[in-house]
């Protein structure tokens, strides 16, 4: 039976559970449950602290886990990222008092406050920079004001909290994180084939929609140039002479632009439907 770690709380917990439900897996009904067996799919889920998941997977006690890329790197555990699950996005940035630092190279020799010392240490090593890392559990924005650090490294969303603390971001982000499926090895175990196929199906369904429209046959090449689909669009003759019906998958983020361009071209009856799930 495949054994998979799932975040038991925090921002990754609910989206991870929902994604597994969308992929057809049974999940716990009581948030206090520590484990859930899905006999039909031969999988057992364990609900663990997000920070501990990489450790359990790297030790081999569990086969796979869902956690944040930031937590994986911060743990230093020898586990590998298998699939980006495209939720739980976070951007890590340096931030310092305005006017004190102008480039990341200047952090050498400084004191850096962060709740992710492993992630920051990995960055410093990779870029051959030496600095003192001050580990804090949260509210690191106050560290500079209180004299504990010269700058911070933390998740930045709108920047409002930084501005309140008199800090400004510095340079490019240390990391752009999101939820990832991890395993002990770079190659997933054979028992995970079904899981990976299902999760990929959910990701495609979330990122694409099905677009259907009618268009004159003499405009078909131009229309399908806008909607090439994944493999190829489906084209069917209509009862109305000289017209065809077209169906194609289109990226959700592009669908309104494509609909406008199809309408300008002369296509009509343009309809969009969600894709519940798929196998490509």
UniProtKB/TrEMBL annotation:
Activity: how regulated: Feedback inhibited by histidine.
Class of enzymatic activity (EC top level): transferase
One MF term in the entry's GO annotations: ATP phosphoribosyltransferase activity
GO cellular component: cytoplasm
Primary location class: cytoplasm
Family the UniProt entry places it in: Belongs to the ATP phosphoribosyltransferase family. Long subfamily.
Protein name: ATP phosphoribosyltransferase
Source organism of this protein record: Actinoplanes octamycinicus
Species lineage: Bacteria, Bacillati, Actinomycetota, Actinomycetes, Micromonosporales
């Amino acid at each position: 039976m495949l054994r998979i770690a799932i975040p038991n709380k925090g921002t990754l917990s609910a989206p991870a559970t929902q994604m597994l439900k969308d992929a057809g897996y049974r999940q716990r009904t009581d948030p206090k449950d520590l484990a859930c067996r899905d006999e039909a799919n031969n999988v057992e889920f364990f609900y663990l602290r997000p920070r501990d998941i990489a450790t359990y997977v790297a030790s081999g006690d569990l086969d796979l886990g869902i956690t944040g890329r930031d937590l994986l790197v911060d743990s230093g555990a020898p586990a590998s990222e298998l699939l980006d699950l495209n939720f739980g996005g976070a951007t890590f940035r340096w931030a310092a008092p305005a006017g004190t630092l102008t480039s990341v190279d200047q952090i050498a020799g400084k004191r850096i406050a962060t709740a992710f010392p492993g992630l920051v240490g990995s960055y410093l090593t990779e870029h051959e920079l030496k600095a003192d890392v001050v580990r804090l559990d949260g509210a690191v924005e106050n560290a500079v004001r209180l004299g504990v650090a010269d700058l911070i490294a933390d998740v930045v969303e709108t920047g409002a909290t930084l501005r309140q603390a008199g800090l400004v971001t510095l340079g490019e982000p240390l990391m752009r994180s999101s939820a990832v499926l991890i395993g002990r090895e770079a190659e997933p175990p054979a028992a995970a084939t079904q899981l990976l196929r299902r999760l990929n199906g959910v990701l495609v369904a979330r990122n694409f929609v099905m677009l259907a429209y009618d268009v004159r046959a003499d405009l078909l090449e131009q229309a399908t140039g806008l909607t090439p689909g994944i493999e190829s669009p489906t084209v069917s003759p209509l009862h109305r002479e000289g017209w065809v019906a077209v169906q194609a998958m289109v990226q959700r983020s592009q669908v309104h632009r494509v609909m406008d361009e199809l309408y300008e071209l002369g296509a009509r009856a343009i309809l969009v439907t969600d894709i519940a799930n798929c196998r490509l």
